[in-house]
Write a structure and sequence with these properties.
heterodimer; A: mainly alpha; two-stranded antiparallel sheet; B: alpha/beta; Rossmann fold; 2 domains; 6-stranded mixed sheet; 4-stranded antiparallel sheet; about 25% strand; elongated
Chain lengths: ~280, ~325
Amino acid sequence: MTDRLISNIGPINLGLVQRALREVSGATALLAGLTAGVSYLMGFAFPRIQERILERGGPTAAMMRFRAAFLGEESAAALPAQIAAGIQWSHPVLLALVFAQIIVVCTRVPAGETERGTIDVLLGLPVSRWQIYVSETLVFLLTSLVMLLAAAGGAYLARASVNPQVLAPWEGVQRVLCNLACLQVAMIGVVCLFSTLSERRGRAVLAAVTVVLVWIIGEFFGGLWEPAERFEWLSALHYYKPLAVLRAGELPTTNMLVLLIAGVVAWVAGGIILSRRALTSV
Amino acid sequence: MPAIETLELTHAYGSRRAIDHVNLSVPEGSIFGFLGPNGAGKTTTIRVLLGFLHATDGAARVLGQDCWRASRSIKTDVGYVPGDLRLWPWLTGHSALGLFGRIRGTDIRARGQKLADRLGLDLSLKVRRMSKGTRQKLGLVLALAHQPRVLILDEPSSGLDPLVQDEFRLMLREAADAGRTVFLSSHTLGEVEDLCDRVAIVRKGKIVANDALSALRARAGLQVVAHFKPGAEPRAAELPIGLVQDQPAPGVAIRPGEWRGRHTGAVPELLRFLAARTVLDVSIGKPDLETMFRAYYTIGEPIEPIEPIEPIEPIEPIEPETPSPTPLKPEART
């Protein structure tokens, strides 16, 4: 006689969660470690660079122009501590690590599973496609939180060795982290959508990387080239402005809502596609 | 209620119909053989039954429930082994039983261990280190461990050695004896012949035969293998009604004087025809599944239902027109 086990909590299947955690834990641990290290180095280096610039009489005109493109026009009036933190949390290396983790993790199901043929086994089990999607998404969110905490942890540790005069208040950094969490949600939604549309993981990854590049380039060129400014609103990065958050001293609720809604809409669209499409190993 | 039922089931990949108006009815507690070569539509049918694919037209039901809408609840009672089983490489046999049990909400470890012992499977091995046959064994253990009411097996014994195949067949028989239904898609005709109560043959997405094996055999008529004196083989125009020469299978060499065919007419006619010729040897018997299968797949042969043969009348003594060099020894094969 077989024993009954608790397998489902609402739409979440614990076995699927266990499986997904086992699959993504290695990559997430590696990328989280890297992120913590990079965040520590940035938190250590950027305030010191600001300190040196101040000692040498302030930034040059070229530096100001590049900074404005990178951080927005408000950088001209920002304090050195805010600029240091603003550069750290907008830095492409940090964002690339955060996005890479999402792309690696979220393209596994269904694109990755379809490509390697394990989707037949997965769908042969008594779980609905929505259960698979919801259970996997729970793991995506958990591992993204790990990445966020790693970035925050690295930055927090670096603060101990930085001159307080060039150190942004921790409350402000926490608000930036909230904004970054919403950006992660938007990214998860978009990558899940691409994954449900693809039968090959490579294609889903390529589509996601292309979108991220378009976001970054669009946002960067929007600050430098007027015609590109009209399309800035299409970039998720347009709703993630660390420097503005640090200066305003309050949560960017509108931007956060836009990111959350975009993420949820893309995620639901992905779920609907997954629940309706033909799904077998290729 | 049939365990598996399809009504005019059709699935198309774009403009190509993989299965075309397939009608199947698999009674509960039976072992049903589903035969066809690669690309005939077997796997597509199975994928529709399991809710991986949406039927383009028609309906498919397992245990009375719609395969697409009730896919999740159906699979509580279904065990499935895909043709090319691929599992997550980090799993071991033990962790696979734990994980599948957790997903199913049933502890299947004890029963899984018993099944693994029967198949000689080492559950401590990681999937990435398993050979195809070992992986297939694990797939069978995972499909059978929760004691499903319906087993859907797509080429399950590929890669298994002959001794394990015997044990596997025994396990399927035990499952059927316990009232479970087995839907077995296979290329191994001997396996199907040994196990199955009923057989369906699919060709280019259409069912060309669907009946009990005994009924298929009866319909297929008699298999005739005769050795004539070289050069004395009969021409097509000389054959009696109901006797048709088989087209040789590609790559199979025919010896001089050897003649193979099927006879669906009256037996006395056949014997009279043979007695009138110089026959060195002859074998007349019921065809095996392979012969029947080949008959449906003879290259270029249109799909035609085979008419049932008339009941065999008692054979009258035959007066040979010319003396035969060797006595005619009809030998019935079963």
